[in-house]
Amino acid sequence: MKDAAFESIQIRDSSLAERTAEQISKLIVEQHLTCEDRLPSEFELAELLNVGRGTVREGVKLLVARNVLEIRRGKGTYIASNPGEIPDPLGFAYYPDQLRLAMDLVEIRGHLEPWVARMAAERANEEDLSILRQACSTVEQDILAERDHSNSDVRFHVSIAKCTHNLVVPKLIPVITYAITLFVSLTESRLKMETLVDHRELLDAISTGDGSRAEKAMARHIEYNRVLMQELIRKMSDSPGSTERSSPEHLL
Amino acid sequence: MKDAAFESIQIRDSSLAERTAEQISKLIVEQHLTCEDRLPSEFELAELLNVGRGTVREGVKLLVARNVLEIRRGKGTYIASNPGEIPDPLGFAYYPDQLRLAMDLVEIRGHLEPWVARMAAERANEEDLSILRQACSTVEQDILAERDHSNSDVRFHVSIAKCTHNLVVPKLIPVITYAITLFVSLTESRLKMETLVDHRELLDAISTGDGSRAEKAMARHIEYNRVLMQELIRKMSDSPGSTERSSPEHLL
Description:
Two copies of one chain form a homodimer. The first copy, chain A, is mainly alpha-helical.
């Protein structure tokens, strides 16, 4: 009984905090605040939104949790640099069947990324190409030094996406490459060498503005990954002790 | 000085809360908890994670803010039904140039959705089709009753995506159709009638399993939207008083 009463207070508070978070968020959009801007003080916000300072604090916490705001040590609360963007925005980590998720993602990558590579070749400027070359080298250095190259691999694919000058495409790549880490973890030297060769071919095609070659290179790169993935999944489902609910750990 | 001290406490608290949130999130994944499951009590979690109940409460709040957990009135804290999925996951609301965003989204839709329509036609089962027919009727009813049909329109496109049986495609549609509301708000009867005709054609093509017809119908549907959008943007940039930072309000 005591618990229930306590909880209803929590709910009331949280919906007020939620409304306050929405109002602060509206303020950010309307006043065109960017990561250069410090959020008005708790006191000012409380006055402006006509709520208590405690409610403002709760609303701010919600927006920090959602990466709309960030607390900078010793400086105060600022607008985040990519407000509202969070890691794993579609909650893939909570999907029960991680292998099916990986296959479904690679299906999307196989359709989306060759098109992205073509646009990249058609639209890249000198600055884009210089960043792309750097990203390509970083993956190579990681692979040759036998370091984990999953992050630099995603950054290479994002750099290609940035060549398109479409605002959204580079945001989608980290979402659909969620599964890269899974396969990089397998660290087969064969896949590593294929990656080096495929990435170089992509870089060359994009640098020379050859859209059709870039599209084909990316299609081949992702198809190779897909086939390898399917092989692994077949092996796993043949092996005893595999459960209905598969998880990346089972792969490693 | 007092403010600075207060803030450093907040930061310490928030990183501890963040680590606790990560541990709770790991627990959900490892124990395969779903929306059927109640989260262990504050007391149990505090014992298990070896932190104070206040820290557990802060960690839970973070996960509620990110839609991993939800508080059900009078029932307690549960795993959310789509854990980790949040509205506007890429933070589009904070993009300074909403018109450029809309054009970049329609570029992606023009590549992705015709492919989705083809897969839908090739893979839909009877249950999928029955849901799709219902979704199509709802849009029609909204349009004929002159109600706002932006939500039902997105649901129709999501229903098509569900026919593919790819887990991720239906999650991407609400992201890339972010701009639909913008254009539905224009309420040109011409666009409404086009929508009715295009949706019916899509439904027919998918129902009869004709992938190529579905792909073409979707391509035409989105291209029509794109051209209309471009016209509007041209009109707006010609009109006086348009600012560098465009926002949806300017369209209405």
